[in-house]
Specification:
The complex is a heterodimer of chains A (55) and B (521). Chain A is 80% helix and 0% strand. By secondary structure, chain A is an all-alpha fold. In chain B, α4 runs antiparallel to α13, α6 crosses α8 and α7 crosses α8. In chain B, the strands form two sheets. Chain B has a four-stranded parallel sheet, sandwiched between helices. Chain B has a four-stranded parallel sheet with strand order 6-5-7-8. Chain B is an alpha/beta fold and 521 residues long. The chains are: A mainly alpha (55), B alpha/beta (521).
Chain lengths: 55, 521
């Protein structure tokens, strides 16, 4: 197999891998399921920030 | 999993008591791949945003930034059930709005004294209200017109129904009344909670919304002027905006606002930039009118949240200043024409043609999608999309420069919502019935925002006229930014009860009738 063909094959495999992973994340809504887990930690963090709270 | 419109049971996508949905829709190969590609684009926009360290710093400083975790879900909520052109129109709009908000956030944090602290950039920033027509910025192309309230409260509640609750509570802890509109109350709460970015050469506030917005502006402007040293101009547009004798006063307010901005930024008004923007505003108006014309026929194309959200952004916040929106207008119109020629429908069945009137529940903006999918009610247009259609002067001549001041005043007076809630019963009550005839509607869904006194005062008059005309009038109460008062299911129940008891109908998709989405974003 020529060098160019090898590079092309590798590119196709990378593209397919990228598609397989991202499409799984997309269709099963995994991105939103993950960020939903992050939110409570962020809210706790905001409660600890010192603020100049007044009218 | 279905390619055909309306073959899915959309209620099955919800997880009882969950924050997010079970999975995304399968819309057939081509539409699913299209939606996936747009999801990737949104992820790239978000990725680009968090690449900048100052934006990450802001994420950990401002509580309202947590809501931006829900950006992809907001798009999913509005694209529910859509296929073909409708899906593409929705993405054209939503993806552009997301990009625009990302740019706004990036600019805010760049100039923010706590985050980027770019003082030179900050000197070129003019802060504006969220609910403000930005016409006075059309002739300042070198200045940045930024709203702190748009990302902290307005967009936040679109993303997460609970976003404003913390700030409403903070405002009330400090003695602000609990029965004012929760939108300005939350905006005041952000300021009281020390959670607003600090930047800008000056700020322009307006009286354009209501008494509640005056409350919020008072609290915010005091902090801006006394603590942050940012001078604030109060742009007071007249209430009876259809009367000829108030127009000179309105125009003078515009002249004063421009002079104020020139004084505090050192920039000069640029007429060429103004007339360029005016041309784009006119183009957006012509496109919107064409969409509304289509909505008068049995084959409406740009309607529901596709019409409402985009009009709000394009008409008021953009106001001709961003050329990308002109390109989007063109693409949306092309898609709409294409679907119209093929007599396409966005849902499998259209049972009722409705005008949506009043101020919509912000925490349930995708209610219009639900109306269509659950009951086959087509939201042809809404009060906030029925804005000015006046053609602005586009050519730079001495006479037109004078008229342009009046055009800007007119736009400011006729900002979204205000053009109906202010100006007397003719614009709020009488014109509704003209629209029901014009759009051949058999139903009016009347949002009753319980804290909006301008609207609730006319409750009886709406009912009286609907009875006379034989129009089905369905009241839907809500509290704009606060789902603790009336939940999303509480909103849906009001429609469900009417449709079952008065109309004696069964839902098209029964799985959507009751949803346990109290905890959902």
């Amino acid at each position: 197999m020529s060098k160019i063909a090898k590079i092309l094959l590798r590119l196709v495999l990378v593209a397919l891998g990228f598609f397989a992973v991202t499409f799984t994340v997309y269709i099963f809504n995994l991105d939103m399921k993950l960020t939903a887990l992050i939110e409570p930690f962020l809210l706790k963090h905001y409660d600890k920030i010192p603020r100049d709270k007044h009218l | 999993m279905a390619k055909e419109i309306g073959a899915d049971r959309f209620g099955d996508f919800y997880i009882d008591g969950g924050k997010v949905r079970r999975r995304r829709e399968w819309r057939g190969l081509s539409d699913t791949l299209y939606d996936y590609s747009r999801w990737l684009t949104i992820m790239a926009t978000l990725g680009k945003f968090v690449m900048k360290p100052r934006n990450v710093k802001a994420m950990f400083r401002y509580r309202w930034m947590a809501n931006y975790l829900a950006v992809p879900m907001m798009v999913d909520r509005h694209t529910q059930g859509l296929r073909g052109e409708y899906l593409r129109i929705c993405h054209e709009e939503q993806d552009l709005v997301i990009k625009d908000v990302a740019k706004l956030l990036d600019s805010l944090f760049r100039g923010d004294r706590r985050i980027g602290n770019d003082t030179e950039f900050s000197k070129k920033v003019v802060l504006v209200d969220e609910n403000e027509m930005t016409a006075v910025m059309m002739g300042f192309p070198t200045l940045k017109c930024l709203s702190r309230e748009t990302p902290s409260t307005y967009v936040s509640v679109l993303l997460n129904q609970h976003a404003a609750e913390h700030y409403i509570d903070v405002a009330q802890e400090f003695g602000l009344a609990g029965d004012v509109c929760p939108m300005p109350e939350a905006e005041a709460g952000v300021s009281i909670d020390d959670d607003a970015p600090i930047l800008g050469a000056c700020a322009i506030q307006c009286n354009t919304t209501c008494d509640g917005s005056l409350l919020g502006n008072g609290v915010i402007s005091r902090r801006l002027e006394k603590e942050n040293g940012i001078p604030v101009f109060q742009l007071a547009a007249p209430l009876r905006h259809r009367e000829d004798d108030v127009q000179e006063y309105a125009a003078q307010e515009i002249r004063n606002a421009i002079a104020f901005i020139e004084k505090h930024t050192g920039e000069k008004w640029d007429w060429k930039a103004y007339f360029d923007c005016a041309r784009r505003v006119n183009y957006a108006t012509r496109c919107r009118q064409e969409w509304l014309e289509m909505n008068r026929t049995p084959y409406p194309q740009v309607f529901g949240s596709n019409l409402a959200l985009y009009t709000e952004t394009n008409y008021m916040a953009i106001c001709g200043k961003v050329p990308e929106f002109e390109r989007a207008d063109r693409r949306i119109t092309k898609l709409a024409r294409q679907a119209y020629e093929k007599k396409k429908m966005a849902a499998k069945e259209y049972r009722h043609r409705a005008i949506i009137w009043g101020v919509q529940s912000h925490y349930y903006m995708d209610f219009l999608v639900w109306l269509l999918n659950c009951w086959g009610i087509v939201p042809l247009t809404d009060m906030l999309s029925m804005v000015s259609t006046r053609e602005l002067k586009e050519e730079d001549t001495p006479e037109n420069r004078e008229t342009a001041i009046y055009d800007m005043a007119w736009l400011t007076e006729n900002m979204i919502m205000r053009n109906r809630t202010h100006g007397g019963y003719r614009v709020l009550l009488d014109e509704l019935w003209e629209f029901t005839q014009m759009f051949n509607a058999d139903m009016v869904i009347l949002w009753e925002h319980m804290s909006c006194k301008a609207l609730t005062g006319m409750h009886g008059m709406f009912e009286e006229r609907a009875r006379e005309l034989g129009i089905h009038l369905v009241w839907v109460s809500h509290d704009l930014f606060d789902p603790r008062i009336i939940s999303r299911q509480g909103v849906r129940d009001q429609i469900n009860n009417y449709m079952r008891t008065v109309m004696r109908e069964e839902p098209i998709d029964p799985s959507l009738e009751v949803l346990h989405d109290e905890e959902s974003w």
